[in-house]
Amino acid sequence: xxxxxxxxxxxxxxxxxxxxxxxxxxxxxxxxxxxxxxxxxxxxxxxxxxxxxxxxxxxxxxxxxxxxxxxxxxxxxxxxxxxxxxxxxxxxxxxxxxxxxxxxxxxxxxxxxxxxxxxxxxxxxxxxxxxxxxxxxxxxxxxxxxxxxxxxxxxxxxxxxxxxxxxxxxxxxxxxxxxxxxxxxxxxxxxxxxxxxxxxxxxxxxxxxxxxxxxxxxxxxxxxxxxxxxxxxxxxxxxxxxxxxxxxxx
Length: 250
Known about the structure:
By secondary structure, this protein is an alpha+beta fold. It has helices spanning about 5-50, 65-75, 140-145, 155-160, 185-190; strands at about 55-65, 80-90, 95-105, 110-115, 120-125, 130-135, 160-170, 175-180, 195-200, 205-210, 215-225, 245-250.
């Protein structure tokens, strides 16, 4: 084989590679456009479903990652996982949430209730309710608490900068995966960014992941989801022993 032949093949190889690179580069704007179209479709679906949304009930797994502890313990470290049941409903402009954490039994189970701008945590073992009003932060707390539960897509865009991450299968369900960054100081203080997996057909989150600057995160996975089921006022009351101690935090 002479030099000219080798040079010709070399040139053709790089020419083919240049065409491939050009085609990949051309795909980027199209991919971005497709992503924008998909996001618009999901936002429109959320807007459409929001009007008929009343409540949702689900089991959940609540996984917490401590970055500092993971760095120290390395291979021995395991994320903390709590499980339980959740109820959520919209009542006028207010949102109400009940989390009943049943596992693990140690250190102890607890109930978390958010209602009328107040957060309450009940610890059955000590029969104690810790209570705190969110005050002027109510709109931001509502935006976090209601994230992924029947809200309008327009409201999502109002509270968060939204980045489309694509479609993803979770538990066999086609979900819209989006990254969110809060637009207000209160939301930015609550978390640096969040990733949510929304089922557009029901307008509910299948998963939510909230990140902190230090690398900590909380991943919540919802299972056995029921939308607009038999949820009443009783689902949003703490189930306490008689005469619980009440501690209010300012």
